[in-house]
Amino acid sequence: MKFIDEENIDFGIMLSKNGLSQTSFRKKLIKLFHLSNSSLSIDEVINGLHNNVDKATVYRALNAFEENGLIHKVPDKDNLLRYALCQKECSPTKHSHNHAHLLCDKCNSTYCLNDFKIPIENNYNGFIVSNSKIILEGRCVDCQ
Ligand SMILES: [Zn+2]
Ligand SMILES: [Zn+2]
Ligand SMILES: [Zn+2]
Question: Any idea what DSSP says for residue 27?
């Protein structure tokens, strides 16, 4: 939940690094994720963009971001689709997501808990782990 100085981030370069072409829409979208310190649902993304974009365009861009290691799906108690920014270790070829998430049971915000790593990478006694969902539920600072 750190504050990121947006002035120091070149969103275009970030897109290029992850194998995506730079469009003004994509730049706005990745900036939105940087300005939000929580995860975003599709509706929150559309509201945050402040202009008329159709849902299909947003879905397509989010899918491309996910495939290219910029964002990842995060759990939500209503099973809504939510995304949060990936950390630097993600790339178009490999996402590394063994962190837990904090979930506020009042406003339903989800936060990546990047300093809580699940100590099992991808294999537990022969069991291949493909996805992990550890959620710590409670109240966020705004809802206390
Ligand atoms: Zn990732
Ligand atoms: Zn909350
Ligand atoms: Zn996360």
Answer: H
